[in-house]
Amino acid sequence: MNTPTPHIQAKQGDFAKTVLMPGDPLRAKFIAENFLENAVLVNEVRGMLGYTGYYQGNRISVMGSGMGMPSMGIYSYELFHFYEVETIIRIGTAGGMGDDVKLRDVVLGIGACTNSNYAEQYGLSGTIAPICDFELAVKAMETAKRLGIPVKAGNILSSDLFYDGGKGKEQWRDMGVLAVEMEANALYLNAIQAHKKALCICTISDHIFTGEALSSADRQTSFSDMMKLALETAIG
C-alpha cells in the first residue's frame, strides 16, 4: 500500500470503511466535534482535516475534499485505492436550479452531469453517465423517510466553473437538473472505476435564478438534516 500519500498522512487502518466528505475541511471538523464520539485527527496535510470516530457505536470517518473535481479526484482516489475505503458520501452545498428547489432543501444526486473533461482519462469511445450507488441511494431515501427529512432526488450538475455568470444554466434546468455543485462527477467516476460505492447528498445554499443565498456561517453549521441523513445512511 502506498501510504502515507503525498496528500494524506494517515496510516493504514486510520480511516473507517465509510468516509463522509464535505468540501470544506472546517465542516469536517464541525461534524467530528458535534456528531462523532472519540474523534481522532488522522490527517491535516495542506489543512485538509480528516477525523475518525464513532457514531452510535459505528466507526465513521469524515474528511474534507476541497473544491472542484481535481481535488475530489485526488482524495477520493487515494481513499478508495490506498486506504481500503469502501464508501464515500459527499455532503456539501449546491446551488438550486429547479423551480421547486428551495434554500436548505436536501438533494440526492442520482446522476452527475458535467461540463468537465474528467472522464477523458478513461479513453472511452462514448459518453459515460456517472451515477451514484443504487443501494446507497435507496438506503438514503428510506432513511430520510424514517427521519422525516424531505428530499429531492435526480440529476445534478458538477461544474468546473463557479464564476460563469449563470451561462447555460437555463438549458440544464430545462433538462431537469435540480442543482449545481463541483465534485460529484469525479467522485462517482472514481467509485465506478474502483468498484466502490458513492453518493452525493447536498443542501441548497443558494438559488441560481432567484438570487437567494445563505451566509457562509449558515453553510458551515446549519445543515443538520443533511449531516444526520448522511450519518444514518452510513450506518444503516
UniProtKB/TrEMBL annotation:
InterPro entries assigned to the protein according to its UniProt record, in alphabetical order: DeoD-type, Nucleoside_phosphorylase_CS, Nucleoside_phosphorylase_d, Nucleoside_phosphorylase_sf
Which residues does the record give as phosphate binding sites? G23, R27, R46, R90, I91, G92, T93
Point out the annotated site residues (description: Important for catalytic activity). R219
> For binding a purine D-ribonucleoside, which residues are annotated in this chain's numbering?
H7, E181, M182, E183, S205, D206
Q: What is this protein called?
A: Purine nucleoside phosphorylase DeoD-type
Gene Ontology cellular component annotations, sorted alphabetically:
cytosol
In the record, the note on similarity to other proteins reads: Belongs to the PNP/UDP phosphorylase family.
Enzyme Commission code(s) on record? 2.4.2.1
Q: What does this protein do?
A: Catalyzes the reversible phosphorolytic breakdown of the N-glycosidic bond in the beta-(deoxy)ribonucleoside molecules, with the formation of the corresponding free purine bases and pentose-1-phosphate.
Which GO molecular function, any one, fits this protein according to its record?
Answer: uridine phosphorylase activity
Q: Which residues form the active site?
A: D206 (proton donor)
**A family per Pfam:** PNP_UDP_1
The domain of life is Bacteria
Oligomeric form and interacting partners: Homohexamer; trimer of homodimers.
Q: Which residues form the Nucleoside phosphorylase domain?
A: 18-215
The organism that produces this protein has a lineage beginning with: Bacteria, Bacillati, Bacillota, Clostridia, Eubacteriales
Read off the PROSITE patterns from this record. PNP_UDP_1
Does Ribonucleoprotein show up as a keyword for this record? no
State the UniProt keywords alphabetically. Answer: Glycosyltransferase, Transferase
Recorded catalytic reaction(s): these are: uridine + phosphate = alpha-D-ribose 1-phosphate + uracil; a purine D-ribonucleoside + phosphate = a purine nucleobase + alpha-D-ribose 1-phosphate; a purine 2'-deoxy-D-ribonucleoside + phosphate = a purine nucleobase + 2-deoxy-alpha-D-ribose 1-phosphate
Which top EC class is given? Answer: transferase
In the record, biological process GO terms are:
purine nucleoside metabolic process; uridine catabolic process
